[in-house]
Write a structure and sequence with these properties.
The protein has helices at 2-17, 38-49, and strands spanning 23-31, 58-64, 67-69, 75-77, 94-97, 101-108. By secondary structure, the chain is of the alpha+beta class. Strand 1 (23-31), helix 2 (38-49) and strand 2 form a beta-alpha-beta unit.
Length: 117
């Protein structure tokens, strides 16, 4: 259910950058370790967007896999939740990617130039 608050945060961020223009698409990066259910986020995004500049906007989610790096230099994509290095067995891996949750870009409608006649 935390997708509801995430959807609200995305819309708040997008509206601050839309400069009053209607938003047609939002491009979001979501890391595997954020444990976001894409369909749930999309549902709540549509719900929270009603009556805002994002009303009717398409939400595009790029899912970023979790990648870890061990002190021994080995790097791997996380499969499940085993954080141990398959090379040396150490459990002190550093997260390289997979924690992202960010609005990468937005598409907005062009504003019509004001009539000066």
């Amino acid at each position: 259910m935390h997708e509801l608050s995430l959807a609200g945060a995305v819309i708040d961020t997008v509206e601050r950058h839309a400069a009053g223009r209607r938003v047609t698409a939002v491009y979001l990066q979501v890391g595997y370790l954020r444990q976001v259910v894409p369909g749930s986020l999309e549902f709540y995004f549509e719900h929270v967007a009603r009556g805002t500049l994002c009303d009717g906007a398409r939400l595009e989610q790029e899912l970023i896999p979790a990648r870890l790096r061990c002190g021994c230099g080995r790097e791997w994509e996380l499969d499940g939740y085993d954080f141990r290095c398959a090379g040396c067995g150490a459990a002190d891996a550093t997260v390289v990617s997979g924690e992202e949750f960010l609005v990468e870009s937005i598409d907005v409608e062009q504003q019509e130039p004001a009539c000066t006649a």
